[in-house]
Write a structure and sequence with these properties.
The chain has 231 residues and is an alpha+beta fold. The chain is 33% helix and 26% strand. It has 6 helices and 9 strands; from the N terminus they run βαααββαββαβαβββ. Strands 1, 2, 3, 4, 5, 6, 7, 8 and 9 form a 9-stranded mixed β-sheet that branches. β8 and β9 (211-219) form a beta hairpin. α1 (13-23) crosses α3.
Amino acid sequence: MHLNLAPATEADLDEIIDSQYRSFEEEPFHEVLYGPDTAALRKAAKERHLKEWAEDQCVKWLKVTDADTDRIVCVGVWKIYPQYVPHPAEEVTVDWWEGKEKEMAEHTIKEVINNKHEKCKEPHVCKCSLAIHTTSAEFTGPAVVVLYMLFTDPEFQRQGAGTMMVRWGCELADHLFLPAWVDSSETAHHLYLKNGFEDVLHPSIKTEKWDTSYYVMRRPAKVPKMESKFA
């Protein structure tokens, strides 16, 4: 299968949402962040993506497509902050759960953010396997490039699409002389190991409804080899 990496557009969002929910069907943290798979919450997810697309000029949506069918097989959402940009901390709130489930979802998200802040204290490129749309506090600090979300359609996993997206970010990090950080799901752990990431933490956040286990991983900056034609 021949794959193409290209910018995604708003016209792709319906296909992206469908692939997103199928890709994360077995991932508890996706349900924490987006709620159950219903038509209403899919519409809400699309509206959240569109809002971010319009308001955040630093966001870059990329897609990997099957060259033969033009079907989207992988999506990566990058946020590029080339210089220090302060962002005020926001309260973590969710409106797609109610009652006790709302409390558990907010607790889980806060724990993920706290783990990130504990380890990611240096300039870095950080990838979150699932997007945390409820806070901008994680971006406060030195220049960063963030892979905000990554997923591969279940029918096309382990065929190189995820690797293509990760390597794009790793090469960008190297050219910026920055280490890369990733919050990896259990499922995607092997993908980051083979691309040079190392385990830093393996948190597990348990509630009555969800058991969220993931890896905080780091890839050291690798200075790209550059040669001059001039003496």
